[in-house]
Design goal:
about 70 residues; alpha+beta; two-stranded antiparallel sheet; about 15% strand; about 50% helix; 2 strands; globular
């Protein structure tokens, strides 16, 4: 577990893998989320969405995950 935490807090991982800048833009646009919500891409990346703030939305985490699982 310690190695995983060290990986997550690495500044290069935070920027390149976790896309910190995009997360900060989403937080500025939508505000802090309640525990049951997430930021997500709409349309989803697998359906042609892009990794840009214009494609970011927010919503219920369980519903969004269920939809993605249904798509396979």
């Amino acid at each position: 577990m310690e190695e995983f935490v060290e990986y997550l807090i690495d500044s290069e991982v935070e920027e390149k893998i976790l896309r910190r800048k995009l997360f900060d833009e989403a937080k500025d646009k939508f505000g802090v989320l309640p525990l049951n919500e997430i930021y997500f891409f709409a349309p989803a990346l697998v359906t042609g969405g892009g990794e840009e703030i214009k494609y970011v939305n927010k919503g219920d985490a369980a519903v969004h995950q269920s939809i993605l699982f249904d798509w396979g």
